Amino acid sequence: MAFVETLTITDVASGLSDRRTGLLRLMGLAREDRVTDLAITYKDRLTRFGFGYLEQFFTGYGVRIHIVDGQEDKKSLQQELVDDLISIVTSFSGKLYGLRSHGKARELVSAVKGVVSDAGELPDQGS
Amino acid sequence: MAFVETLTITDVASGLSDRRTGLLRLMGLAREDRVTDLAITYKDRLTRFGFGYLEQFFTGYGVRIHIVDGQEDKKSLQQELVDDLISIVTSFSGKLYGLRSHGKARELVSAVKGVVSDAGELPDQGS
Predict the structure, then answer these.
(1) Which of A80, A81, A125, B89 has its CA 20 to 30 A from that of A90?
(2) pTM for this predicted structure
């Protein structure tokens, strides 16, 4: 592929957030018909959930999505996975147990942290 | 609000899935300009994550979203929350530990199940 004009958009935020500045800007550009192709370095970084929604959104404006998914940087991708999991468990705990049972919510979060705390020792899964 | 024509679309699937038949149909109708307003009984059932993406999608086609969020049926909403949490933890475990450490993945899932297994005894959070 060769593109006449390219623009790099970067977000420093978890793929869990659906209100990232860069992503919103990109959606705006698609809506204004100023993008034809979208190259994503890591699918999970574009979005951890709901990729199908983004696909519907972008293809609706004729934007083709290309996923590059490099092999480098596996360690930090794993760490992001752990961080996102803990965010999710924390958020679900709050919804499940609410303010009435802080103890239970904390118990759930620490159960998960206890298991994943050795993420640094995760095997290399690059191959 | 009064609507001239209404259509009820129901999905029997978790709000985690971004490829539900009913939702895809609804997105198709929006794209064809055949929907003006969307009333959702429970926001989390429309989607557990990425509501912002759907909002961008639907407003892009001029569809207004109304969230009803009733108070009934709290018990099964809680159960869905537990089910979705377990699905997520299972999926993340697989990604984190892969095929090389089934044991570790199982450990993570059972840690979560152990804490949430008494979901049936969750306090009523309707008030």
Answers:
(1) A125
(2) 0.82
